[in-house]
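Cross-check.
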Amino acid sequence: MSARRRRRAAAEQEEEEEEEEAAEAGSDKEVDLDERLHELDLRSDSDIPDVPPPTDSTPEILKKALSGLSARWKNWWIRGILSLAMISGFFLIIYLGSFMLMLLVLSIQVKCYHEIITIGYRVYHSYDLPWFRSLSWYFLLCVNYFFYGETVADYFATFVQRREQLQFLIRYHRFISFALYLTGFCMFVLSLVKKHYRLQFYMFAWTHVTLLITVTQSHLVIQNLFEGMIWFLVPISSVICNDITAYIFGFFFGRTPLIKLSPKKTWEGFIGGFFSTVVFGFIFSYFLAQHQYFVCPVEYNSETNRFVTECEPSELFQMKKYSVPPLLQAVLGWETVNMYPFQMHSFALSTFASLIGPFGGFFASGFKRAFKIKDFADTIPGHGGIMDRFDCQYLMATFVHVYITSFIRGPNPSKLLKQLLILQPEQQLSVYKTLKSHLVEKGILQPSLRG
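Predicted model, tokenized:
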């Protein structure tokens, strides 16, 4: 028994020693891994290639007119003059109609995409990656083809029905889109170069994230526009108003820094911009809600080949009487107030534009700091690039689309009718019989109408 016990004890001791050695080896690996991670954390931003600073694109006439001012006030006047010019141009495009607004959105999307992709190209230009620019623009073409094809299928059904070539493209639209993307994917794989694999995958991800930010959001902007121009104008104008008023309040009263990513942003500007935007959204909504041109859904008339905005305004845009809360009655002296229901929704839009929308700008600021650049480009003097002005708009577009689908939009009879018109006659007859039977059961149609 004693010999057997000694052998068992020796075996147990050997097992314990093996476990200790394994634990030590594992700990050594963990230490090595921790050291490597620590070294990566200690890497400074100097490892990131420098991006050439943008040039000053301020017109010479403005430089001479403002030459006597300090840099702070010179920037103030340049931003102010260019802001008024852009707002005036925006109103002109609104006057020209919804189709011009769609072209504007598409142009802004392409320019924003170009600015972000160009930063990536400049940062990694020394590596001379093959096909990077060509593939980037090819993927932009593919994604736009997919999204705008979906829009054509949804809103231009009667137009498509008259043209056999378009019917083929719409019927197999998703397959064609996938085939186009797959072609680009294969081209990317074929372009991989030894020793640059990781960098090429970085840029592949860069391109796709840029597509997600620009193309997807601009598609949502156009979807919002089809719901009625007011769903396009109020959100965009609220972001613009917040940007301007926050800058003004911060310029004159700003003392308390808001966030480290944007040192010039202050709490005074943030709060002042919030209240100004809420008031602006309420008043601007009241003005727009009075006109069919702004409140009616944008529809394509296949007979005139034009977009039309004529309808009987929905309940959202019909004046109603509301009771004033008792606490406010003593202050305002009103028991009731007349307003459009959409003005209540404008509070939600303005609040998001003021409180959450700026985080799109903070995100862009963090991106620019990561690559040591002041602006995305120098397209607009005093403002930077187009992306510098629309970094908050894309976040706003997503919110508006979600808000409409969650709280506003119901079944769209016009859209359903367009889809029914492109069905085969047998399918249309089947839908008609099913709908007729349903209406008879509901008591809406008389049983004598069956046939």
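The beta strands are 257-259, 262-266, 299-301, 306-308, 320-323, 336-339. The mean pLDDT is 81. Passed to J.P. for a second look.
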